[in-house]
Amino acid sequence: MSVTDSPRLSSLLSPLCRREALLTLPAQEAHVPAARHFAADLLETWSVPESERDSAVLIVDELAANAARYGRERMTLLLLLDLGTLHIVVSDSGTAVERPRPDIAPDEHGRGTGIVQCLAESTEVHQTRSGREVRACLRCSA
Q1: What is the pLDDT of residues 10-41, one digit of tens each?
Q2: Which of 4, 39, 66, 90 has the fewest C-beta atoms under 10 angstroms from its C-beta?
Q3: What is the CA radius of gyration of the chain?
């Protein structure tokens, strides 16, 4: 596990960004709880209200679980708190954006992205040179 600053963050940050943190973990389901606990502890330190923190931690959990399932080598969690918006960005080293499969019952897979979309103000999925990146934004009163 590593927590680092990243030079590529500058494209996401406004000049008034207040807080940011980056966590890189192996893309394995066993590391999803570490991402969840990291986010919960950090957001509490940043004084994010409990109800907003709970929503953010659930989003982190769902996105990290997907990154662990579909990524190959590593997954990265980026949290940015900027002007009343919490940006949650999870990247992995997977090769393709997964699409829902009609042959799998919805109660077995696919609820995670629905949960994220319900809780987040906005979501985006991007394929990058090194893998996949999912962004979710939440309004935050911290």
Answers
A1: 455 555 558 999 999 999 999 999 999 999 99
A2: 4
A3: 14
